[in-house]
Amino acid sequence: MKKLNALSIGGFDTGAGAGVESDIKAFESVGVHGLGVVTAITAQNTLGIKGTLLIEPDFLKKQIETIFTDFQVSAVKTGMIVSSGQMKVISELIDRLTVVDPVIVAKDGTRLIEDLDSFKKMILPKAYVLTPNAVEAEALAGFKVVSIEDQIRAAKSIHDLFSIPYVIVKGGHLQSDEVVDVLYNGKETMLVRSHRLENRNTHGTGSVFASMLAGMLAKGIKVEEALPAVKSRMEESIKFGLEIGKGIGPVEPLVSLERDSMRFKVLRDMETFADFVESQDHFHVLIPEVQSNLAHSISPEYVEGLEDIATFKGRIIREWGGRVRVGMPPSFGYPTHTARLLLSIVLKERKGDTLINIRYDQKLVRAFKNIGYEVLEVDREKEPKGEEGRTMSWIVEYVSQNHGKLPNVIFDTGIKGKEAMIRFWTESIDEMMHSISLVLKEVRT
Fold first, then answer.
1. At what angle do helices 337-349 and 391-403 cross, to 10 degrees?
2. Helix %, strand %, coil % for the chain, to 5?
3. Band of the pLDDT at 372, cuts 50, 70, 90?
4. How far is CA 318 from CA 128, 284, 285, 290, 431, in A?
């Protein structure tokens, strides 16, 4: 298998939150193989940088030459470049730096560039894309950047001063409800907006942003097209920032791949459940008049909406003679009652990933009690009228407010126009299948 290569030149973060390690993960997240050249080794954790060991220019040169004598490099991204000696080596060996992330000061205030004048003279003219945040833009443009208008002015100024084709002044450091990144290409200004996320774990945001962008450029995507895609991926990476260490944790550039792998597992699980259902004697006794469906989600801590929950397109259907057919395939995002209820439970409890609706019968209620589950009845007459589509969330809210927790079995005896129903949720597909087997055994004896 062949793959494009992208190279990161920067520091090594012992906490793996930023630097070359996070760059390589970011490259891989967009489908590009990551290569790394180290300019400095930092003694670093989530609380900050405790020390730095600089790589001598001669060894830096050896690293770069070794990479280029073997690999075809489609993009080069730079981060932490400390000394003028390092800058000289990079400027002499590399004609074009695809993306330059001007890492001037670390998040904890540690200064990372010893000689900013040399950086301006030797590195910036080599840049194809420059990605400063507001603080870095101030240092390069020479004036305060506190508004979108300042971002635009700074992008144009930096473009003109250093002849950089594309300048992206990021807005994450500015005080506002949204984050606006400003792109200037010498002719046009482009603004890309996103909501500000309240998550303290943002270490490595700049590194990951620049590396994802470089990876996409390596694949031939234009800057104007790549920037919105990177912004979207960054939102997800920040939203699921890692709660590790005692300080500011890192963003997670691989979260999109993790969520994709979870979705694949969900689909496999549902195929297994379909086989289980169709092979079970007497499963038909569980199916109500409106038929059943199974909702199954990715790991609860990653669930954001119905797009993370799968159900069977054709439901679970009782046929003539006690036969049961599962309406394959399973699909994500369908607003079924089971999916909505599971979503409400997950968002409330951050646990549980499987739910099924089954026929109300006192024998089935007793069976769930007999195998060890807490059972709760909900009076549907208390449901507010005129809130079509909110029944499932109402059930969760009502039970939480009046009982303090959500038992695994919640049933109602119905109201006019609404069939009585048992709703059963578990924390895994295996628990669901095992428990249903026990319930069926109970009702047969």
1. 40
2. 45, 25, 35
3. very high
4. 63, 6, 9, 10, 23
User: Tokens 């540690």 correspond to what residue?
Assistant: 110
Residues 6+ apart with CB under 8 A from 308: 259, 263, 297, 298, 302, 332
Q: For residue 171, report the phi and psi dihedrals to the nearest 5 degrees.
A: -110, 10
Helix (H, G, I), strand (E, B) or coil at 136: helix
Task: Enumerate residues 6+ apart whose C-beta is below 8 A from 434.
Answer: none
- Going by C-alpha positions, the residue among 56, 35, 37, 43 that lies closest to residue 16 is 43
Give mean pLDDT, residues 73-102.
Answer: 97
**Has residue 437 got a pLDDT over 60?**
yes
Three-state DSSP class for residue 92: helix
Q: Is the pLDDT of residue 197 over 90?
A: no
Please tell me the distance from the alpha carbon of residue 249 to that of residue 29, in angstroms, as a whole number.
19
Predicted pLDDT at 210: 97
- 424 DSSP β-pair partners: 356, 409
Pairing relation of β-strands 409-412 and 330-332? unpaired
pLDDT of residue 176: 79
- Is the model's pLDDT at 444 over the cut of 90? no
Residue 220, pLDDT above cutoff 60 = yes
Task: Kindly report, residue by residue over 311-352, the tens digit of the pLDDT.
Answer: 999 999 999 888 999 999 999 999 999 999 999 999 998 999
Which distant-in-sequence residues (6+ apart) come within 8 Å of 128 by Cβ? 96, 97, 98, 99, 164, 165, 166, 217
Q: Which two tokens stand for residue 327?
A: 């309406």
Residue 321 DSSP class? G
Cα–Cα distances (Å) from 166 to 218, 293, 404, 417, in that order, read 15, 51, 55, 62
Whether the ω angle into residue 329 lies within 30 degrees of 0, i.e. cis, is: yes
